[in-house]
Specification:
The chain is 27% helix and 41% strand. It has two helices and four strands; from the N terminus they run αββββα. A hairpin with a 6-residue loop joins strand 1 and strand 2.
Length: 70
């Protein structure tokens, strides 16, 4: 994912979730994904899917049971 793509996705996520602290950061060794943070906390991975000429992005976030107790 290039810088322009990440900037657009970050703006979309901030607007969609009404959360200006969302940050998307390129992964140094992966070109098809980026890491998603709220502030300094890692929350998931954004994957780019380019299949049959159509591009989409998938956000994957794991929620641990222990996080639900906090």
């Amino acid at each position: 994912m290039d810088k322009q793509e990440i900037t657009k996705l970050q703006a979309y996520m901030r607007l969609k979730f009404k959360l200006p602290e969302i940050k998307i950061v390129a992964r140094p060794k992966k070109k098809d994904s980026a890491e998603v943070f709220i502030g300094e906390e890692f929350i998931g991975v954004m994957y780019r899917d380019d299949e049959d000429g159509e591009v989409s992005w998938n956000f994957q976030m794991a929620i641990l049971e222990m996080d639900l107790d906090g």
